[in-house]
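dumping this here so i dont lose it again. seq + smiles for NAP
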Amino acid sequence: MATILKLYDSLPWAFRAGVPILLTVGTTTFCHHLFHFNFLEFLGCTYSIGLGFLLLYHFFLFIYRNWVGVALGHNTDLKKLGSWAVVTGCTAGIGEAYSHALAKRGLNLVLMSRSKEKLEKIEREIRELYQVQTKVIPVDFTEGMEIYNGIEEELKDLEIGTLINNVGMSYPFPEYFIDLPHGRKFYRDMLNCNMMSLTMMTAIVLPGMLQRKKGAVVNVGSLTSILDTPFMALYGASKAFVDKFTQDLALEHEEHGIIFQSLIPGYIVSNMSKVKKSNFFVPTPEAFVEKAIQAVGLQSRTAVWLPHQILHACIHIGQFFRRDGAAEVR
Ligand SMILES: NC(=O)c1ccc[n+]([C@@H]2O[C@H](COP(=O)([O-])OP(=O)(O)OC[C@H]3O[C@@H](n4cnc5c(N)ncnc54)[C@H](OP(=O)(O)O)[C@@H]3O)[C@@H](O)[C@H]2O)c1
């Protein structure tokens, strides 16, 4: 079943659309011969069978991408893409979990965040625990274009197969856009940190990946990119950029051997979320990252954690019925 699904998924979209249409028409015609439907019954039967096939397909695909594909090893082995990985925002939360998980898989690491002390601490830990090579680059991503020449210089001789664009900042507290403390500086910092960083890091690392015809770029977005987030408008919008940018780059590069993965998680235990204890709905960064790494090569856009994936699906259904806010404005 998994092989059939993988094969089917790799077909061009016209064939993928053709298969369910042929199946639906075939089954309905067969039922028509058995039960001699009138026109309305024929239409109803076609609709129900079509919908049934569609649901079944998505159900099997979901099972395959989350569990069967992983068990069969159809996901991507990041080590095979290049010996180095780069993690931005690596000294806490999700970035720290990525650093440990990648080093555990034998990847050498470029560690990037602001605090030199925290970088040296995690570098020591990783070298002791996993015996891999490391390089630290202290950098503040709220700064503008001027930081990227230096970063490019530091990375130029490394065979980078994996880039984790994780760094991001949120609001200190929910607030009207116009009332944010230090408004204009805050807007600039957030756009630089959440959007410019992954644009420029991708621009720096991608040419090497294209030359080697392999690589994975993981961009950490958020469920807020598709949820309504009043009083966090700029954060939600910056994460929508991350998601859209990643999906389109994935399409641009699917023929070139480069994987782009857009992560759109809900709450995860971290300093940023201010959630201290994990539960069924809020994973630890370690649990989240383990699942996210397993999903590389199987899921190009995912909320990763099962309850977040279900929430994601519910949001999509809910958006179909959403009221238009503009209609309320008199
Ligand atoms: N936690 C959640 O619930 C959640 C949910 C959805 C999406 N996300 C996204 O996941 C990513 C990581 O979030 P997190 O919760 O793991 O955050 P976190 O625990 O606050 O960690 C942030 C990391 O980024 C570094 N950092 C912060 N500002 C930086 C800057 N200006 N320049 C360089 N490094 C900087 C921090 O180290 P230094 O302080 O040393 O610089 C730290 O290593 C973010 O993009 C966030 O939007 C988080």
